[in-house]
Amino acid sequence: MKLFRYLLLFPALFALSCGDVLDKQPLDKLQGENLFSNPEGVKLYMANLYYQLPIEDFTFFRQGFNWNTGDPNNGGFAPAMVTDEAVHSEFGDFIGNDDFQWWDQGYKLIRDTNILIDIIPTLTVPEAETKALIGESAFIRAYAYFALAKRYGGVPLITSVQKYEGDVEALKVPRSTEKETWDFVLKECDLAIQNLAESWPGGERRATKWVAYALKSRVALHAASLAKYGDRAPISGPAVEQKLVGLDKSAAAEYYKAAIEASEALINSGKFSLYKPTPASPEEAADNYRKLFEDPNIAPTEVIFIKGFARPGSGTGHNYGIWFQPNQTANGWPHPGRMNPTLDLMDAYESYTDPGKSAPIVTTEAGNDINDYNGFSASKNYKRYDDPAGIYKDKDARLWATMVLPGTAWKGQKIIIQAGMIKPDGNAQLFGGEPVNANGKTYYPYGAADRTQYSGFDTWGGNNTRTGVSFKKFLNEGVNVAPGWNQTVSDWADFRYAEILLIHAEAVVESGTGSSQNGAKALNEVRRRAGHTKDIPLTIDNVIRERRVEFAFENKRFWDLIRRREYHTLFNNTVRHALIPVLDLRVSPAKYIFIRQVIQRINPTTFEYRQYYRYVPGIGANGLVQNPQY
To answer: CA-to-CA distance for 601 and 607, rounded, in angstroms?
Structure first.
């Protein structure tokens, strides 16, 4: 077999040679022209394709994917910070035009995958290996086109290697309609399902039939939501007129049906279950949930597909362990504490005494303050707590497992998060000031005398939370991460069984088809793992709330707001909120009160209709139709 070296043309008209990949000398020194004639060469090439997958993991930021080579200094931003889940400790940037782009990189992965797909028929390998290669290639191409479709709508569908023969115009591929693009992704998923085995002999982290089903269920739900809710954000222009963006409402039914069928295949297989699905108490549920993300390898029946981070270092580790630890556990890293969960997210979690709805945190005895963000008022009768974490008592276990709450222990330290004091004379001293002597003691504005001894509200270094809690999910309590780049090696759970259950529940309730009984069962299984004992009905509000709390910080909220066309409603000159712990010196001994207020030093943000699609790069050269309003 001879490997031909073609020049490939992306829609952005970058002329690139496949030799860029093939001429890199792998560890076993295979030459490019011999790569596919050697099983090890094929394995190396496949590993490169998996590495390029647009998995929205620890190294996914607004700049792109796999942002962990060399010095990936993006200031500790994460996608959650442009949603209602969190804000950055220091900055308040929102979504820019160049954020979340993935055009050139996407077509590079597609080109590299097409090289392999074109070569497969010429390989002399057993039939089982051929099927596996066909299945994996289809899975990777489906994953790539999914990432493109949810950013751009309809895109050029390039399904084979393009050969340059002197005519650039012949290589230009027009955009397909958005409907054609989503249908193509689902067709590729089906091809992967048909050809992939249920598992790999050595347990390798590669696509299987079940992973392909999981991808199909995620893709189909996304497309169904776009079809059902696209008219919430009407746009116009040539791309709309040519159906390059937008789906007819009538398409929703077929996509919801595909989501139901794909999720049912996983549910009915009997091979998957939630990790520790029936905890004895909320405390046990919180511990189970935390450990699931600390090391997803402990949950082989729940975690369907893992992206591994093998060792510390450039390209192999990530930076959650340095950016997002509370300030007190920074272990020498100069800029921790960057992920600040919002009160808006805290409020979404249910209580155990009144389940089935969000339980906004009540700070006053009157209980009528949940929409009052005007700061401290001496006339209010605030609830007082000896333990600052007491205000969170009865809240869903996942809140305790996702956030470091004030006064709780993390890595052997009591985490101190305090925004100031109410002095004995009733005057508030918030966000700074001098120590106060009262009741024979000295009290400090941020709860301790030294900056290394507290984790909240001080603006020094941008290292302290400004929302009232710090971040916990994914972090390993038993590991002190070295203060350097890419030193964290926790793995990422890309597909979890919990997602499949909630996809099934949402598709059933949104479509009005399928078994509502099974949809409710799927919803309540996820809640039961969180320590809830009372089932709730299958409604869309219940499903969406459950997605918010179950998948917090897993980079799903951004796309949920996109696909359901809710971003512009949620972010319309919108501010996000904090829950401020304050030491009340009007009583002896001093106790904590809490104030609901707007987050300090952050501007209101607005999401524009056009931001539901990213702009298409390179249209001056590639002749493609641009997305609306760019």
So the answer is: 19
Residue written as tokens 């066909």? 134
In 3-state terms, what secondary structure has residue 329? helix
Total Cβ atoms within 10 A of residue 143:
28
Dihedral pair phi/psi, residue 249, rounded to 5°: -55, -30
Instruction: Give the Å distances, CA to CA, from 567 to 93, 221, 233, 345.
Output: 16, 17, 9, 15
DSSP, collapsed to helix, strand or coil, labels residue 531 as coil
Q: What is the pLDDT of residue 348?
A: 98
CA distance 363 to 625: 53
In the block, residue with structure tokens 């009915």 = 268
Q: Considering only CA atoms, which of 122, 120, 111 is closest in space to residue 148?
A: 111
pLDDT of residue 40: 83
Q: What per-residue confidence (pLDDT) applies to 43?
A: 86
Cα–Cα dist 354/351, whole Å: 6
Q: Which two tokens stand for residue 314?
A: 């450039």
| 463 touches 335 (CB < 8 A) | yes
pLDDT 10s digits, 260-298: 999 999 999 999 999 999 999 999 999 999 999 999 999
How far, in whole angstroms, is CA 217 from its chain's centroid?
17
Angle between helix 127-152 and helix 178-195 axes, rounded to 10 deg: 160
Question: Which of left, alpha, beta for 62 (phi over 0: left; psi -120 to 50: alpha)?
Answer: alpha
Helix (H) or strand (E) holding 616: none
Bridge partners (DSSP) listed for residue 7: 17
Distances (CA, A) of 529 to 238, 266, 360, 498, 605: 48, 19, 22, 10, 35
CB 219 within 8 A of CB 598: no
- Other Cβ atoms within 10 Å of 118 Cβ, number: 16
3-state SS, 479-541, equals CCCCCCCCCECCCEEEEEHHHHHHHHHHHHHHHCCCCHHHHHHHHHHHHHHCCCCCCCCCCHH
CA atoms of 561 and 574, how far apart (whole Å): 15
At residue 293, what are phi and psi to the nearest 5 degrees? -95, -25
Strands 403-404 and 420-422: unpaired
Rounded Cα gap, residues 464 and 136, in angstroms? 44
State whether residue 89 is helix, strand or coil: coil
Residue 49 host element (H or E): helix 39-52
For 296-308, b/e burial (b = at least 16 CB within 10 A) is: beebeebbbbbbe
Alpha-carbon separation of residue 186 from 158, 220, 258, 506 (angstroms) = 15, 7, 9, 19
**Considering the entire predicted model, what is its pTM?**
0.94
Assess contact for 25 and 178: CB atoms under 8 A.
no
Burial of 9 (0-12, 13-18, 19+ CB in 10 A): buried
Q: Which residues contact 169 (CB under 8 A, 6 or more apart)?
A: none
What φ, ψ does residue 70 adopt, rounded to 5°? 65, -120
Looking up tokens 């996407």, which residue turns up? Answer: 106
What is the C-alpha to C-alpha distance for residues 547 and 503, in angstroms, rounded to an integer?
Answer: 9
Q: Which strand (E) or helix (H) includes residue 598?
A: strand 591-598
**455 is written with which tokens?**
């984790």
d(CA 473, CA 398): 9
Retrieve residue 524's tokens: 């309540």
Q: Is 201 exposed, middle or buried (0-12, 13-18, 19+ CB in 10 A)?
A: exposed
| Cβ-based neighbour number of residue 427 at 10 Å | 11
Give residue 31's pLDDT: 52
Residue-level pLDDT at 595: 98
Residue pair 594/362 in contact by the 8 Å Cβ criterion: no
Task: Report, as ranges of residue numbers, the positions in the chain whose pLDDT lies below 50.
Answer: 1-30, 32
Residue 129: alpha-carbon gap to chain centroid? 33
User: Helices in 371-496 by DSSP H: which ranges?
Assistant: 397-402
